[in-house]
Each structure stands twice: as structure tokens, then as C-alpha cells.
């Protein structure tokens, strides 16, 4: 799990002391402040993911304003969505050095700045930079900490907690669609983006709520996961390794380097306390040197953790099922994003604008999406149900809906398919849980960063591809068919790899029996 000096601290005792003391359950794990973390993550999903799901409203305004092709204009929305997710692995570096709270606050400021600057756009290419890149990076800096913090604070009810927090996407899509429609009608799209930028500053408040867990809390969380004393010992050693990997206790090569750094910092502290007779100027220089030295140590340890997770000997890419999960993510997210961006245009083509104005199809997806996340989260937490199987069934339902959507040309038919899309896409709440089951809590933040990066690539190319297909064929049908088929390829990868994993141990045991 990502952590920094702010997140972890330095108050550690020996393992023997920890084991000898009776460990009391922490009220903040699965309760207490954990629910404030869920609230913070919920609001982040409303303000970031909900706003992005409502970009179809602004996409139509940009088409009229700049008179560009659908393929080119769709790049604005897809850049914002894609970059939000693509920067996940790189945001992990910030989290390693600064912690989730600081990263989220900086991201909130950057996201608001992107919205406000976009209000002054003179062409589509200007929006690429301000809204696509600036607001996208800011969104990514808030989104990943919001997901990771829920995983840190919950153990027994992880799927439910993730489900509740990510329902903000559905609420946000419903609320932001109505809000952006109203603001664009009353004030124009430029003022609407300016107002939305001011609203986005609330992301800084959400970031401030992300209070880091102490190392004692982390140890207790791992102990709660185990019932027997033997497992407790293993868990405590695992949590110690987590602390080591997060830059508090380094690996063997890092210990020498840390000792040297501590010597320098200690000598500076000695001069500070013993040299009161010196000038204030030299004292200021020494304090500055001490601060820079501490910052350098933090940056180097954070980078070492980040680098080893992706490129080290224990790289996540050595897990074959996780690699299949990445391939699935590369195709999956575009199938969910394309309807949100292009449905308003499809409704206009089918002359269904009157019915859609009463109850927009994107709002139907958003509302049912809320129930889908909560219900799928509750089902997955049942002891007799496999989270992996629920995840796969939801994926099969969603890909079927994507393939059948072009066949519906009435409002009622489209509404039914959109409702099914909303419910089945509730599997997004299970993605952090599935990821943690594949790689473990220690690597959750890094692994989930890779998954949302793959989702970001999918979101980046999906809507422009659909717009490009429309420019050629003057129909959106082929866009949905191709996206659905690619999605099916990703699901097949998920099905193949677990079967291979199961067969390998059996083959080995057969060979041993023959010997």
C-alpha cells in the first residue's frame, strides 16, 4: 500500500513488543473514521467521474461552437477521461512521497484550474490542453487516493464500502447531467464550465478528509484478517514488510544509505542545538539543509518503491492472471464510455429528443448504475459467493447489452438496454476487490494504478474511434459492434488464464507421482 512519512510515521517498536501486547481491534478499521473515508470517496466520484459521464452535454455544445468533426471533438472528452486513469501509475509516485491527502488536495486545485481555463477556449485544440490534459491530470491525482484509502480502512466489508463509495459515479452522472444542461441553457457553456470549476474546488475538502492510518492501525488490520496465532505471526511479518516497502524501514542495501543520511541529519541537529551562539543566518542554512536532506531521503525511497513495484524482480507483471486482467481493462472501459458521449447524438438522430428531454437515457444508466454497484457489492460479500464469478457475469451482461444497443431504435427499447448497461456496469465497485485478491493488499495501489491506466487507454481511444467510424459510415452501429467484440476478447483472456493456473499444479503433482 502506498504510504509516506506523513502516512506511516516513525513510532515503531520491536516485533517482539508488538506480539507480546494484546492487540485491540481498531475502531477506525471497518468503522469510525472509515465511513468518513467512504463519504470522501463518494464525493470524489460525484465530482470527477460523474462530471465526466455528463460530458455528452458539453460535447454537443462544442460541436456547434467550433464546427469540427465528431471524431476530433470527441478527443476533448476522451482525453479528460483517459488521462484521469492513465496517470494512475505515475500518481503512485506522488502518493509514495507525499501521501494520499496531499496528492488529492493538489489534484483538486489542478482540476478546478482546468475547468476554469477551458471557459476561455477559442478552439478545440485549446480544450485539448486545458480540459483534456490539465483537468485530466488533476482528476487522476484525486481519484486514485480516493480508491486506495477505502481499501486501507476496510477489511471485512471491502466490497460493500467500495460499492457505496463508487455509487458516486451514478449519482454524479445523474446530477451533473441535469446541472450542466441547466447551466448551458441559462448561462452558456463557457460560464457553465467556469461554475463547474468553482464547484470542483470541493475536491480539496475531500482530500483533507483522507486521514492516513498509523502504522499501529495497519498492523491491527492485518491481524484482524487472521484467526489463529500462527497466522497472526505471518500477518505481522507481512505488515512489517509493507512498512519496509513503503520507505520507513529500507531493504538491506537501503539501511546503509539510511544510516549515512541519519548521520548527516544527526550532525545537523547537533550543530543546531549546540551552536546557539552562532549567527541566525548559519542556523537558517542548517535548517534548510536538514529539510532538503529529509526531502531527498523521502523522494529516493518513494521512487525506489514505485520502481520496484513495476520493474523490479517482484514485478506485478509476473502474475499471469493479473496480466490477463490488464488486457481485459484495455478493451472494457470504452464500451461503457461510448454510450455516455454519443447517446445524446444518437437520440437526436432517431428523433427521440422530446422523450429524452423528459428523462435522459444517460440518467437512466446513471441511476441504475447506483443500484448495480451496491447490490453487486452486497452479493460479493456473501460467504457462499465468489467475487470473481459475480465480476464475470456482470461483464457478460454488459457486453451483450453493447452488442444489442444498435438494434434498438425506440425510446422504450433504448431505455431497457441502458438500464441493463447501468446495472451490469456496477462491477466497477468490484475491481479494487478483485485486484487485491490477485496481488494482495501490499501491492493494491500499484496494481490498481496499472488497471485504471489500462482503462484510461480504453477511454482515450474509444469515443474518438466511435466518432471516426460515424464520420465514415454515417452510423454509430459499427462503433458499438466493434467495441463489443473487442470487449469479448478481453473477457476471454480472463477466462483462459485461471484455467491455466489451475492446470499447472495438477500437472506437477502428476509428474511427482510418476517419479
From TrEMBL:
Compartments where found: Membrane
Entry GO terms, CC: membrane
Source species, domain of life: Eukaryota
InterPro entries xref list: MFS, MFS_dom, MFS_trans_sf, Proton-linked_MCT
Residue stretches spanning the membrane: 33-55, 75-95, 102-120, 126-148, 160-180, 192-210, 321-341, 361-379, 386-405, 411-434, 446-466, 478-496
Residue ranges annotated for the Major facilitator superfamily (MFS) profile domain, each copy included: 37-502
MF annotations from Gene Ontology: monocarboxylic acid transmembrane transporter activity
Keywords: Membrane, Transmembrane, Transmembrane helix
Protein name: MOT14 protein
Native organism taxonomy: Eukaryota, Metazoa, Chordata, Craniata, Vertebrata
Amino acid at each position: 500500500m502506498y504510504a509516506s512519512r506523513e502516512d506511516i510515521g516513525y513510532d515503531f517498536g520491536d516485533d517482539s513488543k508488538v506480539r507480546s501486547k494484546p492487540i485491540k481491534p481498531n475502531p477506525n478499521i471497518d468503522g469510525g473514521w472509515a465511513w468518513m473515508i467512504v463519504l470522501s470517496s463518494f464525493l470524489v466520484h460525484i465530482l470527477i467521474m460523474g462530471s465526466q459521464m455528463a460530458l455528452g452535454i458539453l460535447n454537443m455544445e462544442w460541436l456547434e461552437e467550433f464546427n469540427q468533426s465528431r471524431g476530433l471533438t470527441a478527443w476533448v472528452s476522451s482525453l479528460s477521461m483517459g488521462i484521469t486513469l492513465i496517470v494512475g501509475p505515475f500518481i503512485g509516485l506522488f502518493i509514495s512521497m507525499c501521501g494520499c491527502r496531499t496528492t488529492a488536495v493538489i489534484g483538486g486545485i489542478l482540476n478546478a484550474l482546468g475547468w476554469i481555463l477551458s471557459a476561455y477556449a477559442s478552439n478545440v485544440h485549446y480544450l485539448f490542453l486545458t480540459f483534456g490534459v490539465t483537468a485530466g491530470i488533476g482528476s487522476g491525482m484525486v481519484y486514485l487516493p480516493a480508491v486506495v484509502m477505502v481499501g486501507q480502512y476496510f477489511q471485512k466489508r471491502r466490497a460493500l464500502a467500495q460499492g457505496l463509495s463508487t455509487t458516486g459515479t451514478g449519482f454524479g452522472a445523474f446530477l451533473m447531467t441535469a446541472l450542466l444542461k441547466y447551466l448551458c441553457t441559462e448561462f452558456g457553456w463557457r460560464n457553465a464550465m467556469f461554475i463547474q470549476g468553482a464547484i470542483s474546488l470541493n475536491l480539496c475538502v475531500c482530500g483533507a478528509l483522507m486521514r492516513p492510518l498509523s502504522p499501529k492501525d495497519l498492523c491491527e488490520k492485518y491481524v484482524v484478517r487472521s484467526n489463529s496465532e500462527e497466522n497472526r505471526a505471518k500477518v505481522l511479518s507481512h505488515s512489517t514488510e509493507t512498512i519496509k516497502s513503503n520507505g520507513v524501514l529500507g531493504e538491506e542495501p537501503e539501511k546503509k544509505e539510511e544510516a549515512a543520511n541519519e548521520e548527516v541529519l544527526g550532525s545537523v541537529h547537533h550543530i543546531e542545538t549546540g551552536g546557539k551562539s552562532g549567527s541566525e543566518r548559519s542556523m537558517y542554512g542548517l535548517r534548510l539543509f536538514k529539510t532538503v536532506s529529509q526531502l531527498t531521503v523521502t523522494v529516493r525511497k518513494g521512487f525506489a518503491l514505485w520502481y520496484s513495484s513495476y520493474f523490479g524482480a517482484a514485478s506485478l507483471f509476473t502474475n499471469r492472471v493479473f496480466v490477463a486482467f490488464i488486457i481485459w481493462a484495455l478493451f472494457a472501459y470504452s464500451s461503457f464510455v461510448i454510450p455516455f458521449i454519443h447517446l445524446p447524438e444518437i437520440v437526436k438522430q432517431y428523433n427521440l429528443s422530446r422523450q429524452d428531454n423528459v428523462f435522459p437515457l444517460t440518467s437512466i444508466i446513471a441511476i441504475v448504475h447506483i443500484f448495480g454497484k451496491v447490490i453487486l457489492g452486497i452479493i460479493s460479500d456473501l460467504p457462499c459467493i465468489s467475487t470473481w464469478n459475480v465480476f464475470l457475469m456482470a461483464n457478460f451482461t454488459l457486453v451483450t447489452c453493447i452488442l444489442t444497443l444498435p438494434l434498438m431504435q425506440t425510446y422504450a427499447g433504448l431505455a431497457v438496454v441502458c438500464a441493463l448497461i447501468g446495472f451490469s456496469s456496477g462491477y466497477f465497485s468490484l475491481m479494487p476487490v478483485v485486484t487485491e485478491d490477485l496481488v494482495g493488499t501490499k501491492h493494491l495501489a500499484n496494481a490498481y494504478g496499472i488497471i485504471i491506466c489500462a482503462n484510461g487507454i480504453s477511454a482515450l481511444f474509444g469515443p474518438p474511434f466511435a466518432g471516426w467510424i460515424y464520420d465514415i459510415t454515417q452510423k454509430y452501429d459499427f462503433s458499438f459492434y466493434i467495441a463489443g467484440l473487442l470487449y469479448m476478447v478481453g473477457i476471454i483472456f480472463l477466462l483462459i488464464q485461471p484455467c491455466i493456473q489451475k492446470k499447472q499444479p495438477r500437472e506437477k503433482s502428476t509428474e511427482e507421482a510418476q517419479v
